[in-house]
Every structure is written in structure tokens, then in C-alpha cells.
Design goal:
Helix content is about 45%, strand content about 10%. The protein has four helices and two strands, in the order αααββα. The chain is extended, with a radius of gyration of 19 Å.
Length: about 100
């Protein structure tokens, strides 16, 4: 436990809130986060911890089952936005790269 001096790293109350712009759920692919985690999010907003836990459990079970099937069939995990580099995953379109392409 550190009892040294404390300082604010980043004050979130001092910056404006910017609403995310995302496609509607019906337009999202099956594996997009908002679609996958929808039941969990809805239940958390309703303060229904049992429902959120059940939704999370179902999602995790689905992911385990998909991983098991890939392993049994020798199928490679197909990614859309990342590539593997050694033991790490690299995002294919980092912000810096997108900003550079806009300014060109």
C-alpha cells in the first residue's frame, strides 16, 4: 500500500462528454461488442445484477463453445480489425494512422 502523496492524473469532470456515434444494432455484425454485450448492458442499466450475470455467462459459454469447435476443426480465428504479432494483437487502423490519412 502506497501512502505517498496523491495527485490527479486526469480530471474527467473538466472535459466535455462526447456522445459516441455508432451504427444501430440492426446494422451491426453479429460479433460487434455492443450487440454481443447488449443483454448485459440493458440489465446493468436496470440494476438487474442477476440478469446481467446470466447474460455474461451465456456470452462466455458461447465464446468457449466457439473456441472448442475451432480447436477441434483446426479453424483459425479470423479477425476483422486486428492482426497477430508474436504474442500481441495490433489494431490495423490506429487513430494516428487515420488522422494522417485525413490530413493527406
Amino acid at each position: 500500500m502506497n501512502n505517498g502523496p496523491r495527485e490527479v492524473f486526469f480530471d474527467t469532470t473538466a472535459v466535455p462528454t462526447i456522445k459516441k456515434v455508432v451504427r444501430p444494432l440492426v446494422e451491426q455484425d453479429e460479433c460487434e461488442s455492443r450487440k454481443l454485450w447488449r443483454d448485459v448492458t440493458v440489465n446493468l442499466r436496470r440494476r438487474n445484477m442477476d440478469g446481467a450475470t446470466a447474460g455474461k455467462h451465456l456470452l462466455e459459454q458461447r465464446q468457449r463453445e466457439e473456441a472448442r469447435i475451432r480447436k477441434e476443426t483446426g479453424a483459425k480465428w479470423e479477425t476483422k480489425f486486428f492482426h497477430e504479432s508474436g504474442e500481441h494483437w495490433i489494431f490495423d487502423r490506429p487513430l494516428q494512422k487515420r488522422l494522417q490519412s485525413k490530413s493527406s
